[in-house]
Design brief:
Blueprint: H1 2-21, E1 27-31, H2 39-54, E2 58-62, H3 70-79, E3 84-87, H4 112-121, H5 123-134, E4 138-153, E5 167-170, H6 174-182, E6 186-189, H7 195-200, E7 206-210, H8 211-216, E8 225-228, E9 233-241, H9 242-246, H10 250-270, H11 274-285, E10 290-293, H12 296-336
Parallel strand pairs: 1-2, 1-3, 5-6, 5-7, 8-10
Antiparallel strand pairs: 3-9, 4-7, 4-8, 4-9
Helix pairs in contact: 2-10, 4-12, 5-12, 6-12
Bound molecules: ligand 6CS.
Ligand 6CS binds near residues 33, 34, 171 and 209.
Length: about 325
Amino acid sequence: MRLKRILTSVAAIALTAAATTNASADTWRYAFEEALEEVQGKYAQKFKEEIEANTDHTIQLFPYGTLGESADIMEQAQSGILQFVDQSPGFTGSLIPEAQVFFVPYLLPTDQDQLAQFYKESKAVNEIFPELYADQGLELLVMFPEGEVAMTTKSPVESCADLDEVKFRVMTNPLLVEAYRAFGATPTPLPWGEVYGGLQTNIIQGQENPTFFLYSTKIYEVTDYITYTGHNNFTTAVMANKDFYDGLGEDDQKAIQAASEAAYDYIVEYQKGLADSELQKIKDAKPEMTVTVLTDEQRQCFKDAAGSVETTFIEMTGDSGKAILEQMKADLAAAAQ
Ligand code: 6CS
């Protein structure tokens, strides 16, 4: 672990040196939290393709692990070592507390078409959040959905009572911690790199993620139950270093906006049927895996917990969070029509 840290620090120093010697920043660096063939990687590849087709710049991609964990790549993007970063609100809790709104259970619908429209047209996402990210030196380019999250555990989950005494890994996000506490579990915030080993050694007994990620990261090997509670969809955000972005000419800024939109449409299309196909792959790889979609009745205790999580969100974020929550609800209602 220590060696990995040293190596990623060395990589970051090497990048800093490269950044200072290449003031024109002709090669733009873009890091993300997943592998190249996972959803964030597919988005990044499409963005790269668009930029390289329409500008004279090139994009260098840094998949998960090459520059460290999520927290590391965010620091590198804020300091300007990286020009672009994909980081989920799950890891931006202390930086942009309002982005924790994405962890209020049952706020987002599970319907993929509705979600796709919501992120594209939402005033909260496209007008309010960019100001909050800008305060942290980041130009928010896009937020996009990565699929409904499912719980994977070592024992069956048919109600909140089944989570009692379960050490449940969550991303390092205070509201997500509160959500799992309200669900009855013992939330355990950890960076992604510690999840597989944590399950293997029984330090944790559960975690949540979208179906494609459960397959691609082989998390199904160290858990025996997949449970769909419908409580959330995984949201992620792509941003640029703000000083870098503001320093670009109008043509480059327009090309970045157009590439972000093209990659958004591509990633929404790419994910159609993905959860089903990846779940089938899990079942083929591990036929004994128990997959359960909870009934409305079984979901009730999770839904009941949502109210207290929403209250905690408002306590944590005050008027600013309250305004975002209200705007999100209005935007979601519009997308549902
Ligand atoms: O749970 C996590 O930490 C990870 N989940 C996804 C779907 N993407 C990246 C993130 O690090």
